[in-house]
Amino acid sequence: MELPFAESFKIKMIETIKKTTKKERQKWIKKVNYNLFNLRSEHVFIDLLTDSGTGAMSDKQWSEMMLGDESYAGASSYYKMKSAIKDLLGFEYFLPTHQGRAAENVLFSVLIKEGDIIPGNSHFDTTKGHIEFRKATAVDCTADAGFDPNLIADFKGNLDLNKLEHTYKNNPIEKIPFVVVTITCNSGGGQPVSMQNLKDVYQLSKKYGVKVICDSARFAENAYFIKIREDGYKNKSIKEIVKEMFSYADAVTMSSKKDAIVNMGGFIAMRDHELWKKASVYNIMFEGFITYGGMSGRDMNALTQGLYEATEFEYLETRIKQVDFLAQKLIKYGIPIIKPTGGHAVFVDALKFLPNVPQSQYTAQLLGVELYIEGGVRGVEVGTLLADRDPITHKNRYPKMELLRLAIPRRTYTNNHIKYVAVALKNIYDRRTHIKNGFKIIYEAPIMRHFTVKLEKIDK
Ligand code: F0G
């Protein structure tokens, strides 16, 4: 008999989580105006809100914590991180930041001016936020395949080269400082970008003199998909693939809370010394001195070790197979999800799941609230609330897909937890035709409203 798949780690320390009752959950979620971000975490049984900063560190990462050098300037932890970034990603220069959006803030302060245009593949919300905050425009050049939840394709995060070239040709090129390639593409369902596409985007952009910046939060997961799906990479190591991926980028922003498996941290890395010099000024202003940038020495050590672990095939296989395990359960129950599953999360198609709730009533948010009430499981809306209003017309932007994301923290939950989540969703699916009324907004912030929005149930 063929031996079944098993995780490439065992557990050394545990954290207790508590079950709650449906009645309690109904009360708590109403009290926070149906905003899942505002729940207390102890009221959540299984937390799939995000895979960001929620992973479990390894014994080696914890031991690195003890070796952190907390010197204000020139800490050995900084040099450790610098050499890992050179070794694994191939970038000569880097700046530590406290998380991914801080890296965006620093780098975009150098590169973006009012009126600029920043093409990309379904920019992540903080990326878009930092672009729009500077009165620039994010242009989505994702290939059409990325918008079709039923299409099985290997690299649905790819950019459409025609859309990208059209953007380059039809705008003053000096208004396009860079294109941002998000790997994997979070907003598009955690879908990977192929090596070929990375190469093509880079070559096209070089032709027009446009920089390529990779938003690299889940770069290692992207490399895993290249290895198992793209011709010519089967026999390459993840580390070799990662090196090649970044040879097609001028700079990266990184949220280390994902593929460096730490609870907090980030960085910018680049080839150009001039860019590094300019970014250093903002780093000192916003983050901290250039050799710590908002991180303590111990965190830089754990991050460095995390980068090496996240680029091990066995680790990635364990992780991505768990995400797929949830997907297969949901598919078995007939629940509509985006296929194929991305690297870090399963995305449920809320408009198909709840056919009686219009998008204008925030269908995916409603599904998230139902899942919380059903089983104490917390997911996150990736739909109309997240899409925010158009900065000019102030009208709701209705995205092509209205999704509930179930993000799986790294090395945190067992497959029994995953089975529990699947059954909780199935129970809702079985009674879906009775679910009719969604929400209306009673408070929203002018930008990134989903974090603080307050909602009220619509009573027909
Ligand atoms: N880029 C991508 C692709 C992301 O997914 C995130 C964060 C960021 C940038 C910003 O990084 O949180 O460290 O400031 N994504 C989290 C998520 C929040 O839940 O998907 P950050």
Characteristics of this structure?
binds ligand F0G, 460 residues, Aspartate Aminotransferase, domain 1, three-stranded antiparallel β-sheet, Aspartate Aminotransferase, domain 2, alpha/beta, 2 domains
Explain the layout of strands and helices.
Blueprint: H1 22-31, E1 46-47, H2 59-66, H3 76-89, E2 93-97, H4 100-111, E3 117-120, H5 125-133, E4 137-140, H6 161-169, E5 178-182, H7 195-208, E6 211-215, H8 219-229, H9 238-247, E7 251-255, E8 266-270, H10 273-286, H11 297-310, H12 313-332, E9 345-349, H13 350-353, H14 363-375, E10 377-378, E11 380-382, H15 384-387, E12 403-407, H16 415-430, E13 439-443, E14 454-457
Bound molecules: ligand F0G.
Ligand F0G binds next to helix 4 and helix 5.
